[in-house]
Amino acid sequence: MSGTIPAAAKIVWAGEHRFDASAPGSATIRIDASGKTGTSPVTTLLAAIGGCVSVDVVDILAKRKTPVESLEIDLQANRVDGTPKRLASATLNFDIKGVGIERVHAERAIDLAINKYCSVRDSLREDIPVVWTLTLNGERSEPASAKIY
After folding, report:
1. What predicted TM-score, i.e. pTM, was given to this entire model?
2. 8-33 pLDDT, tens digit each
3. What is the pLDDT of residue 149?
4. Could you please report the per-residue DSSP string of 25-88?
5. Per-residue pLDDT at 143 exceeds 70
């Protein structure tokens, strides 16, 4: 397809329900459906959402000249009761620290990251709600629903 940016990955079976995933020239991650030697496929998806969103939040706040000193996200997801047990909803609880970061700017960075820039989030079904909270320099906010742009 012309005009598309390619993505590539390779999966190598490592026995039982274990698989090693990598992209050309990158490190390998272990995906393990049993969770013994690596993260499960669903946990890997949650981590991909968190990683994708984190890159954007850090970049947006850095452009405001308020760099992030630390960022952690606790991610939880609910799954449907049926087959396949796809995600039904996700909650991202951000804990960001940084001198000079104003709550309104951190919230806007999170909102933009989740709803506009994160290609992993945008690749999920549109009916999967994403809710997030922000603890900024120790002060927690109420949960916010992701907005559709």
Report:
1. 0.86
2. 999 999 999 999 999 999 999 999 99
3. 35
4. TS--EEEETTSSSSB-HHHHHHHHHHHHHHHHHHHHHHHTT---SEEEEEEEEEE-SSSS--EE
5. no
Distance CA 71, CA 87 (A): 24
For residue 95, give its domain range.
41-145
Closest CA to 70 of 133, 130, 138: 138
CATH code, domain carrying 133: 3.30.300.20
Q: Nearest Cα to 113, choosing from 48, 45, 54, 67?
A: 54
Sequence-distant (6+) residues with CB within 8 A of 67 are 58, 61, 98
Instruction: Read off the amino acid at residue 134.
Output: L
Say whether both 65 and 114 belong to one domain.
yes
* Residues 68-127: tens digit of each pLDDT: 999 999 999 999 999 999 999 999 999 999 999 999 999 999 999 999 999 999 999 888
The answer to whether 27 and 11 have CB atoms below 8 angstroms apart is no
Residues ≥6 apart with Cβ < 8 Å to 56: 109, 112, 113, 117, 118
